[in-house]
Each structure stands twice: as structure tokens, then as C-alpha cells.
Amino acid sequence: MADTGSEEGEAGGAGETGAGGDGETDDVIGWLLPGHRTAPAEALARIQRLCAAWPDLHAAMFIVLATHPRLPRDMLAAAIKQFRPDLDAYTREDVVSLLTAIWNGGKSGFDAVLRTRANSPKKGAGGFSWVKE
Predict the structure, then answer these.
(1) Bias category Gly residues: which stretches (predicted)?
(2) Could you identify which of 23, 41, 60, 114 might form a hypothetical disulfide with 54, taking C-beta atoms 3.0 to 4.6 angstroms apart as the criterion?
(3) CA distance 30 to 73
(4) Can you state the angle between helices 73-83 and 40-53, rounded to 10 degrees?
């Protein structure tokens, strides 16, 4: 199945997604269906819109994690940090820990990691001089 490159992430014609073959549904949620490959620019634009749509940090991170399960968490963390100014004080590694806490521990795990990371001393850029934190 080829990526059409459209903003909506169309999955192709009816029946190609393996999710019932409803062409209208494929156009709307095709980018969420298993096997769909997303271009990085398309995923980044969606992550930006999702981060802006949810004012609550936990909810925004949860929806990004839930809708982009195939992307590595360090890439999700970097993308989320770009669009959430409330994460400026945290390193990318801190944001990866928050994503892991959301996945494994829900809201209570997220809150616990958020408290511990907020009080921990910050390190350098993790050895990547070209990465802007």
C-alpha cells in the first residue's frame, strides 16, 4: 500500500485497508489503520495539531502516543517538545520517560514521573551537540 501523500493520509481505495472497506471511513481514519505508512512531515503536522487541540499536557501526550504507535518514543518526544511550551524545562529524555509512564502507568504514573523530573537537576544535551533542547 503506497502513501498518497495527502494531508488526510488516505489509505487508498475501498477494501485496501482491511478494515471493512468503507471508502469514506478509509479517507477519514486511514492514517490510523494498521499498515499505513506516514511521511514524517505529515506526522509532524498532525502532532502539532494534536498538541494544540488538547490544553492538558497528559491528554495531549496520550493522544499523540495513541495515534502514532509506530514512531519511536524519542522521535515523539522531540516532536511534542517542539509544540508544547510547558515542556521547555524538560529534556527529551524526560519527555520519553513521561511517554513511557503514560503507556505503562496511566495518569498516576505520568504524574509521578512529572513530579520526579521537575525536581531533578538537568544535564547537558545528552551528547548530541546538534540537538536543541
Answers:
(1) 11-22
(2) 60
(3) 22
(4) 50
One-letter identity of residue 33 = L
Q: Report pLDDT for 92.
A: 94
Q: Identify whether the C-beta of residue 79 lies closer than 8 Å to the C-beta of residue 44.
A: yes
* pLDDT band at 37; cut points 50, 70, 90: confident
Q: What is the pLDDT of residues 40-79, one digit of tens each?
A: 888 899 999 999 999 999 999 999 999 998 889 999 999 9
* Residue type, position 14, single letter: A
Q: Which residues contact 66 (CB under 8 A, 6 or more apart)?
A: none
What is the rounded CA–CA span in Å between residue 129 and residue 64?
27
- In the block, residue with C-alpha cell 492514517: 31
- In single-letter form, the type of residue at position 29 comes to I
> What is the C-alpha separation between 5 and 39, in angstroms, rounded?
7
